[in-house]
Amino acid sequence: MIKLLSQTRIFIISLILSLFSSVAIAQTIRIATGEYPPFCSSSAKHYGFVSHVISEAFAREGHQVEFDFLPWKRALYQTSNGEYDATSWWVYSDERAAKFYYSDTVVTNSVHFFYVKAHNFDFDWKTLSDLDDYRLGVTRGYFYNEEFTQYREENTDRFDVVNSDEQSLKRMLLKRIDLFPVNVVVGLELLRTKFGPNVIHQITYHPRPLSSKDGFILFPKSQANSAQLSAIFNSGLKKLKADGSYERMQENLLSGYYSN
Questions:
Q1: What pairs with residue 112 in β-bridges?
Q2: Cα(172)–Cα(124) distance, rounded to whole angstroms?
């Protein structure tokens, strides 16, 4: 009888500790992000494709998510200081890897050259030297890849720097530039939401990507529970992909479901 009572007491204590542990991590996950429609936007359905994936992945594990939209640099800085549980979404860099745990891949960022078909109907490229006869637009603050950055530094006179992707598309239509590298989904989204149907049919993109990089959720190493939260998210993301939900979200992304 004493042994039975002792075992029962141990079981009850273990159960209580387990419940307290679950409560400790069953918090609302606060994520800092920025405006990059249709991947993340305060005015998009589910706050955009990536935000939707994040919310559903955590939901599979019993957690809710709250997003704050900030300037990108501030989102990264405040998350590194532990003001947020995570920040979404970022490609890999050694500098960020020193301060954050990276999740599994959430999205792939494929950047292609957009151009006006009537202006450059025969455009083709295989190496950066094939771009020598073209005027190129880039968005201030964007990093495309190291090779393109070096090429730009060696050919600054042929580069037009503006503050937004939309501006470059407008300048391309006005023949101020010939080519403009942008995430293919973002480019199509801008054409769909910011320009008329007649413009959409004038512009296309080259099938060869300038860069293709995976995107991740970053969890700050400054916080004790970040590794655990990253593992929880990865588990939910795997479930999302296994049951077909992630693929359906991708189809919605391409169809314009997450448009503002």
A1: 182, 209
A2: 17
Q: How far is CA 166 from CA 49, 61, 72, 73, 256, in A?
A: 20, 38, 18, 21, 17
229-242 as b/e: b if 16+ CB within 10 A: bbebbbebbebbee
Closest CA to 216 of 65, 50, 80: 50
Q: How far is CA 70 from the centre of its chain?
A: 14
Which DSSP letter does residue 241 get?
H
Q: Are 186 and 259 in contact (CB under 8 A)?
A: no
- Residue 20 confidence (pLDDT): 40
pLDDT at residue 59 in the model: 96
Query: What are the two backbone dihedrals, phi and then psi, of residue 214, each rounded to the nearest 5 degrees?
Result: -75, 150
Residue carrying the six token digits 């960020």: 96
In order of their start, the domains of the chain are: 2-107+215-255 (3.40.190.10), 109-212 (3.40.190.10)
Query: Tell me, what amino acid is at 252?
Result: N
CA distances from 45 to 30, 48, 65, 128, 252 (A): 18, 6, 15, 37, 11
How far is 152 from 109, CA to CA, in rounded Å? Answer: 20
Contact 73, 18 (CB under 8 A): no
Provide φ and ψ at 124, rounded to 5°: -150, 150
DSSP 179: B
pLDDT value at residue 13: 47
The pTM score is 0.73
pLDDT along the chain (260 residues), means of 10: 50 44 64 93 95 98 97 94 96 93 95 95 95 95 89 96 94 96 91 88 95 96 96 98 96 86
Cβ within 8 Å of residue 238, ≥6 positions away = 104
